């Protein structure tokens, strides 16, 4: 009987052993290569007590209105021609600066002064005779446009998750003081007249993304005005007396660079 040496057995299965080991060697070299090539970016360092940056923003804004008791009274003949008053979301943009104070590794306070350009559209639906139908009633929609430029002073608190590689998630919230650049005498010529000062509550969320030379933080934020801006007795005669309360509302996408 022929004796089989252990070296012969290894010679028979050498190819299989090598083929089985190769994937593990490849995986190990790949992981090692990724760890060696990974860069932990320190741009926009969170260790600084005070840091600075800038941002660009695009928003969709509208007005929230509250009807008056006279408009809701079916016996009031002064406003019977008005079917509805409907604010519409309109686009705009803003730009400003970031001043970030470090309270904790995961908590910051932000002061973000900015200039915002807003356009408010309000559609007024009026009952009118329909020329296409004998004895019928039609509806005409009249758009009323109000434009304004606001100087804004948001003061916000930012709570961040622990940093994972070059990414952090955060939540943000605070208040925003707003002052219109246009004088009230000029604003009284608008079809929907608003007062020039407001205070808004803001809240949102986003991500800190760390790159080699800067930190980029995309963010979405919601703003709700807290003050009644309606200036009674100066708006378009067709809606004057139909409204008692107007407040701003907006949704904004921020692109922060730091």
Automatic annotation (TrEMBL):
The protein's name in its UniProt record: Outer membrane beta-barrel protein
Residue ranges constituting the Outer membrane protein beta-barrel domain according to the UniProt record: 48-230
InterPro entries: Beta-barrel_OMP_2 (IPR025665)
A Pfam short name: OMP_b-brl_2
